[in-house]
Design a protein that fits this description.
This protein is of the alpha/beta class. It folds into two domains: 33-190, Rossmann fold (3-Layer(aba) Sandwich); 193-381 and 410-455, 2-Layer Sandwich (Dihydrodipicolinate Reductase, domain 2), CATH 3.30.360. It has 17 helices and 14 strands. The two termini are 27 Å apart. The structure holds nicotinamide-adenine-dinucleotide. The site of nicotinamide-adenine-dinucleotide has 27 residues, from helix 3, strand 2 and helix 5.
Amino acid sequence: MSSNRRHFLKNIAVGSGALAAGLPALAKLTGTSDDEMNQSDVRVQSSQQFNMCGYAAPKIETVRIGVIGLGQRGSEAVERLSYIDGIEIVALCDKYPDRVAASQKTLEKMKRPRAKEFSGEEGWKALCDSPDIDLVYTPTPWHLHTPIAVRAMLNGKHAATEVAAAKTLEECWQLVETSEKTRKHCMMLENCCYDFFELLTLNMARQGMLGEIVHAEGAYIHDLTKDWLFNKNAYADMWRLKENIGHNGNLYPTHGLGPIAQCMNINRGDKFDHLVSMSTNDFTMNAMAKKLAEKDDFFKPYADQPYRGNMNTTLIRSALGKTIMVQHDVSTIRPYSRIHLVSGTKGAAQKWPGPERVAFGHSWIKKEELEDLHKKYSPPIVNHIGKIAKEVGGHGGMDFIMDWRLIDCLRNGLPLDQDVYDAAAWSCLVPLSQRSVAKKSRTVDIPDFTRGAWQKNKPVDLTLNGGATTGVRDIKPDLKM
Ligand SMILES: NC(=O)c1ccc[n+]([C@@H]2O[C@H](COP(=O)([O-])OP(=O)(O)OC[C@H]3O[C@@H](n4cnc5c(N)ncnc54)[C@H](O)[C@@H]3O)[C@@H](O)[C@H]2O)c1
């Protein structure tokens, strides 16, 4: 855990996170309905209004940003973004005014002007409706990601939303249709695509060093139980624990999936075709809720609820006949892993369990050879901004690389690395894994959100051509481009 995050946990008001409101006496398990699947099929048959893949929006010299959701992630985002030249954080919004005030202090510390303030349950609507904002950046609980992104785009703003971008298939389509209609970017902030080894494997895959990619594996395996899900001082209003009730599937697929989907050119030469998904029972969460409820009435509403099965495993087959395994487990004791295995006809790369490894034969190559690969094949963005990103921080630097690249693309009128089709295709595992689990792991078709354009869309641009003009503020004395 970063020291920022620990500091945040220590300091946030317990009162703002302590209500168990909004939890029915006994929640029910839900999944994507037949109706929703049928409506999605109709949309797949329709034509794109406009292809947002590769779309270059007009340049914005100074990107005026509104940040909605100033909790653990959002408060860090305000600080990270403040390092970047060519931005102004002009609006801050959180349900709780004390969190807005805390982020105003961050702006002051970063020698940035105060931002306009919005608060309350629906303050985000006024922010999305206000003029003079170019980008709405959203690290809120999951249920608000799509409503905020859609309202922002309809009001002429680009949308950048935390993961996952959508909770339902209907929401995935709303994002796609709104982005196409408004020609506003909708980027899901999948920071793991910008981690150093992931960028190396992406470029190696692009250079053909791994041959044809045949199979890949990704995951989000991170024990969040004690310190996060069941910690009254962590997620606001216990939102993330509530998400684990009634939704049985992969609730957080994109950290593992995004980087490998880019290596496999999903939506840009290949596409997800169908999936099957299986979950275990829950062996920990209800037990933990019941134990806590014995001593603390606060946890009583969380006992005897239909918790998601601990481990979910989803298998995807692509149109070109390749396979992907994605796992999700945030509630058993295991070391952290996103797996990140990319396996091709000429080689393989794997990040977890560590150390990071690459093979071009029966054995993994030596550490020194891997260091050489980093030098030769890390894409230009790593050399350009990697060192500074490590100093600014945010999951070892990947968060800052992502923010810098987003702003640099907007300022230079370049297409974004992650478009609305990526947001929809990577996020739709949330509802579709639940549908498959609910139907004894039956096959579920994955909609082609690009409606055929995947066959012609170009892969993500790994050069910095036309960009790399955005500087970083020299607030820390040793920060130099
Ligand atoms: N990419 C990553 O590495 C990463 C890491 C952590 C969290 N996240 C994502 O970031 C998002 C936020 O997670 P978090 O850990 O910061 O949770 P959090 O609970 O700490 O923060 C959420 C914030 O949203 C606010 N909020 C709730 N309802 C609101 C409303 N109606 N209007 C305005 N604000 C509202 C809360 O008060 C809180 O301050 C989630 O989507 C999560 O998945 C991503």
